[in-house]
Amino acid sequence: MYLYQIRDADHFYGDKQVLSIADLTIASASITGLIGPNGSGKSTLLKLLGFLEEPTYGTILFQGRKAAPFSKVVRSRITLLPQEPYLMRRSVFDNVAYGLKVRGDTSGLRDRVGEALTMVGLESENFARRKWLALSGGEAQRVALAARLILKPNVLLLDEPTASVDANSARLIRKASLRAREEWGTTLVVATHDWQWLYETCDSVLHLLHGRLFKGGLGCAVHGPWRIGPNGMLHKELEDGQLLVAPKPEEGKHMAVLDPSRLTITLPGKDILPERDRNKLNGFVIRLFLERNGATVQTAIKVAELVITIRMERNKIEALRLYPGKEISVSYAPEKIEWF
Amino acid sequence: MNFIQEGFAQAVTLLVNFDPATYSAISATLRASSLAMAASLALGIPLGYLLGFLDFRLKKQVRIVVNTLLSLPTVFIGLVIYALLTRKGPLGEMGLLFSIPGIAIGQVILALPIVVALTATAVEAADSKLRLTLMSLGANRRQIAAGTLWEVRLGILAAAVTATGRVLTEVGISLMVGGNIKWHTRTITTAIALETSKGEFGMGIALGLVLLLIALAVNMFLAGLRRRS
Asked: Engineered SS bond to B85: which of A14, A310, B97, B100, CB 3.0-4.6 Å?
């Protein structure tokens, strides 16, 4: 059974629709990555999954049942680490122990706080009595994570947990979160731009664009201005003068998205069979990242101001002899470009 | 200028010699203001929390009313409470006119808007991430309210200090509702008014200094609380 099932959930802040999820399931004890530009709805989705807010329309089932904010199952099993965690004006010990105290579960509190702090790489003797304001940004983030881990949650929702911390804190945060899954079977949902999170640790990655899930992997969003070309198609002039051609959007849609699964990579001038309905963009590889399965590689290609990320078979990478800096061409079918 | 020096000397004499009339006034002042502050904080903190925390229709209008009540003249409160508690008034049967609880009721009306307004401001100014944090750690609604109030405790302490100062030093309510009855409802401020009207400036200054000493003691206690938190 799925831990979460979302069907036709729409969420509004005032008149503005911020999220529209037609269908989403999350399996128990899985790690799900959430990626998307600022304002794409990642934090809102995490709040809905944490039942801190209810969707304006639609339902979210947790363990097959409808749940609501403040319900017992939500309060005892799900916790969220916000992007900028708030530490209460108390000692580190009291911050970490708060969740257990509100549950009335205070047996062996000192030891449990110590264990939680150790999990995030903080020594209890040095940190437990410190005040909230005597911590660095990375320490504060780890204390906030310890306050969640001490609850041994079924679901741990992490909103950009490593966005504003140093590499060591990021490593410790990732390690502690993964240990929660290993030891307690905790389901993790992580909003992040950290490739290590997304492709080394996540079982699946969801891409949010304008509050909607993009099904074709990491879509590349292209914003205007657009002008109407001679053939009635829309043209976007990229910073280096190349033209991106797209069909006219439906009413109310403003952002074109290149679906990486519909793109083809070739070496410049090496097309065997040039296709009539395909256009080309020239760019170069900026990053190659081997995925956890060892068989596929996330390949980031810079085309003018755009970064297009395409999942490629490892043997294709080897055949094309791709490396960061190598010039390549990306071909696309203008008619297949989607609008959001 | 002699009467000012006399006043200082007399203040010390009154306190050191345990002057019964002075200590009776001190006692009446402390009893009335303690009762008033206890009731004001008990009512005002939850009301201030609700006003600051909740979003509801007419919230702005309620805030304007509360802020307007901050300017209530003490003699007007005294007049209204007198009218309510007098024998012919709707609460006359309770026998609270010319009593310490009667004075305290008037002082609650004086202090309550201060506590409500400043608590609401402190709650509104609390970090918007606080509620999310408390909720995500499993707090229920009651625990969120308690957690929020604890986080803004310095703001609430400021509300208590301000309201205490206003209650300790008011004269209109004590005079009109208490009646300035010696050994019974004569507070320090009403005693000062009386002594001044009799031309006993020295005595008036002495009582004023005693009032300042009480205010100093109360504020030192609250400052201690602030340091601890």
From this structure: B97
Cis peptide before A225 (omega within 30 of 0): yes
CATH number, span A2-214 = 3.40.50.300
Mutate to test the interface with B, among A86, A96, A150, A189 (most CBs of B within 10 A): A86
A31-35 and A187-191 as β-strands: parallel, antiparallel, unpaired? parallel
Best of A13, A46, A102 to disrupt the B interface (most B CBs within 10 Å) is: A102
Sort out which chain B residues have CB atoms less than 8 A from A70's CB and list them.
Answer: 135, 140-141
Q: B168 vs chain A: nearest CA distance in angstroms?
A: 31
Interface pTM, i.e. ipTM:
0.82
Domain borders along chain A are 2-214, 220-339
Residues of B in contact with A99 (CB under 8 A): 137-138
To the nearest whole Å, the CA of A52 is away from the closest chain B CA by 7
Which structure tokens are listed for A104?
Answer: 């009335």
Asked if A70 and B141 come within 8 Å (Cβ–Cβ), the reply is yes
pLDDT at A29: 93
A50–B contact, CB cutoff 8 A: yes
Provide the token pair at A311: 């999942």
Question: What crossing angle do the helices spanning A137-149 and A109-119 adopt, rounded to 10°?
Answer: 130
Under 8 Å between Cβ of B118 and B155: yes
| pTM for the predicted model, two decimal places | 0.82
In this predicted structure, the answer to whether residue A275 has a pLDDT above a threshold of 80 is no
What is the share, in percent, of chain B residues with pLDDT greater than 70? 99
Residues 6+ apart with CB under 8 A from A72: none
| CA A60/CA A118 separation, integer angstroms | 35
- Domain over A220-339 is classified CATH 3.40.50.150: no
3-class secondary structure, B77 = helix
pLDDT at A246 over 80: yes
Residues 119-148 of A with CB under 8 A from B: 147-148
User: Is A304:A242 a contact under the CB 8 Å cutoff?
Assistant: yes
Count: domains in chain B: 1
Residue B160: give its domain's CATH number: 1.10.3720.10
Measured between CA atoms, how close is B106 to chain A, in angstroms? 36
Torsion sign across C-alpha atoms A80, A82, A87, A92: positive
Tokens representing residue A154 in the block = 């079924």
Query: Which chain A residues are closer than 8 Å to B147 by Cβ?
Result: 88, 98
The chain A residue lying nearest B128, using CA atoms, is A86
